[in-house]
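quick q for whoever's on today - can somebody do inverse folding on this one?? i tried earlier but teh output was garbage lol. tokens:
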């Protein structure tokens, strides 16, 4: 989760929260503002439109890449992979963003997602070459955010991905019982992608989430890293050994 702080003349600060899926490239900068407070958990019509656009474009980009990688460019399986990509993006990406938003609104701050048109365009173009490089948008937060609040808001995104991982493991086991190719693909991709997203965002370098979490509570940071590491090792042992 990509975060950057901005100052205001009224001494309020805006905390920008970014979701970044990076394979072979970096994110695209973007910034937006808004009113100062919202009830927990609320969505404006504009925000829902932005979330829908980001989910749709990212799902298309992932489907293009997965069709190429898993099926050796057999695009007859494209619709199959598009459905899987939509489910993965709607959880691993959208719920990650909503996790940040929920925590920010819980503390009484204004928080809304806005997509990056350029980031989504780049993701779609590069997906044609078999890569995902995406800065699809950000949750923008305005208010007097304390260091503790900042750390907890940052931590919620990776925690969502951590929580989703065992659910996708359950889908893998269900797929084995049902002998379902669809569920196998869905479960495996979700079980691998979610800890990767969480792990990348836990890198303790500003403006990634890890730097905010470490600054707030190093013990909490280490605890999260250990869990993510265990999930990645488990995925490697099951799927690659």
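ok took a stab at it. sequence:
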């Amino acid at each position: 989760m990509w975060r950057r702080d901005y100052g205001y003349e009224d001494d309020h600060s805006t905390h920008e929260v970014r979701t970044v899926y990076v394979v072979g490239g970096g994110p695209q900068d973007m910034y937006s503002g808004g009113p100062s407070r919202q009830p927990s958990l609320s969505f404006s019509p504009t925000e829902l439109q932005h979330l829908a656009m980001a989910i749709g474009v990212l799902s298309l980009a992932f489907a293009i890449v997965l069709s190429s990688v898993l099926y050796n460019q057999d695009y007859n399986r494209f619709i199959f992979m598009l459905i899987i990509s939509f489910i993965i993006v709607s959880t691993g990406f959208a719920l990650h963003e909503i996790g940040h938003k929920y925590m920010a609104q819980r503390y009484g701050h204004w928080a809304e997602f806005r997509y990056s048109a350029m980031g989504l365009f780049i993701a779609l173009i590069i997906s044609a070459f078999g890569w995902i490089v995406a800065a699809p948008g950000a949750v923008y937060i305005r208010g007097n955010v304390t260091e503790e609040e900042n750390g907890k808001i940052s931590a919620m995104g990776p925690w969502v991905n951590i929580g989703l991982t065992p659910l996708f493991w359950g889908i893998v086991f269900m797929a084995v019982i049902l002998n379902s190719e669809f569920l196998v693909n869905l479960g495996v991709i979700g079980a691998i992608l979610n800890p990767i997203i969480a792990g990348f965002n836990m890198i303790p370098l500003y403006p990634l989430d890890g730097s905010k979490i470490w600054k707030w509570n190093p013990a909490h940071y280490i605890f999260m890293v250990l869990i993510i590491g265990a999930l990645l090792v488990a995925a490697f042992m099951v799927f690659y050994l």
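fwiw The chain has a mean pLDDT of 82. also The two ends are 30 Å apart (CA to CA). so keep that in mind when u check it
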